[in-house]
């Protein structure tokens, strides 16, 4: 890094570090981390109930990953497609095919920008038989997340902020408990730029209040299931 | 004078250390040193059409570049008295940032320019922002392209217009709850 480093960034200074700390269980390592971007946040954390508070390694929904959303308004389509690929039961393999189901009179596969429309995720999940009950206004507690991840069912979450008023949907795909605090792994279709769309694990409290960095509202939760 | 940086919060470097200590599994080789941080700014979509949107930019964090086995990683912290970790990245993004910073320095003259990083929202590409009395310049972190303020604002306004739900948006086939639509 030092070679060719711009002078205005100064000389490298030492980062104060604590002695190495051994986390319980397996560390998430390997290819999944190679290009992963990690959203973290040493916030207050969120304690989880005593029954589930034993430290755990990262537990994830196997076979679930979200690709970049093709169009700026297609977060719902990217998540729907990822769930279809996870759960099976449908033939769609492209986001435009999901959009085509929603807007049959448009041609999103021929011209995606002409069909760059927002849509409520709940309707899409219901249409494809993957909605697990009504969506919940607001947040759910960490125990519900643990229960769903153990059942290998991603939990989708809608977040918004003043700088991102339209809202955006992401999916919780894993969790880890460290020192009684809940951490989550998230799949974000907008997390593009050539990196993995996997974020985390980061504190559950970050997802609750500041996912976008600034004050962020988690205002709806969608449970999912395999289609019947 | 060349390129300058604003003064970071006092506890910034410690926050970076805590971040690496606590969630360092993917960053376990990012142990050594950090460069001076670059402040992070964001402009909301609604401010884009104001007379001078850049004045509405909100500083929300700081980005530290730290050494790791792949060359560089970045650690973002909040802009607070007691900074907290926002995000850690490795791979292409830190490399692109260093590359854009080098390009900015090579093109800088005698005029003092403060270096910042600007984004308009989660979907927009981050850009290196060089503020100067005689006119701001922007350098893309994706391709290194240099832009002036008018060109940048034109681009962002067009992008946001493209995101806006059209009045003519058709009724979707499987339910429509307009107040809860997401992008």
Write a structural description.
- The complex is a heterodimer of chains A (228) and B (183).
- Chain A is α+β, with helices and mostly antiparallel strands.
- Chain A is built from six helices and nine strands, in the order E-H-E-E-H-H-H-E-H-E-E-E-E-H-E.
- In chain A, strands 3, 4, 5, 6, 7, 8 and 9 form a seven-stranded antiparallel β-sheet that branches.
- In chain A, a hairpin with a 2-residue loop joins strand 5 and strand 6 (164-178).
- Residues 21-45 of chain A have low confidence and may be disordered.
- Chain B is an alpha+beta fold and 183 residues long.
- Chain B is globular and about 45 Å long.
- At the A-B interface, strand 1, strand 2, helix 4 and strand 6 of A face strand 1, helix 1, strand 2, strand 3 and strand 4 of B.
How would you summarize this macromolecular structure in one to three sentences?
The complex is a heterodimer of chains A (228) and B (183). In chain A, 21% of the residues lie in helices and 24% in strands.
Please work out how many helical segments of chain A DSSP would assign: 6
Radius of gyration of chain A: 19 Å
Taking the alpha carbons of the first and last residues of chain A, their distance comes to 53 Å
| Morphology call of chain B | globular
Give the number of DSSP strands of chain A.
9
> What fraction strand of chain B?
25-35%
Biggest chain pair interface: A-B, 75 and 79 residues
- Derived from helix and strand composition plus strand pairing, the structural class of chain A reads alpha+beta
CA-based gyration radius of chain B: 19 Å
Largest sheet of chain A: 7 strands, antiparallel
Order of helices and strands of chain A: EHEEHHHEHEEEEHE
Largest sheet of chain B: 9 strands, mixed
